[in-house]
Amino acid sequence: MSASRIVSLLPSTTEIACALGFREALVGRSHECDFPPGVEALPVCTEPKLDPEAPSRAIDNAVKRFVRDGLSIYRVDPEGLRALAPDVILTQDQCEVCAASLADVEAAVRDWVGGAPRLVSLSPETLADVWGDLERVAVALGAPERGRALAETLTERVNEIGERAAGLGPRPRVALVEWIDPLMGAGNWMPELVSLAGGTPLFGKPGEHSPWLAWDALRAAEPDVVVILPCGFDRERSRRELPPLLAQPGWDALAAVAAGRVYLADGNQYFNRPGPRLVESLEILAEILHPDACAFGHEGSGWERL
Question: Is 78 exposed, middle or buried (0-12, 13-18, 19+ CB in 10 A)?
Answer without folding.
Answer: middle
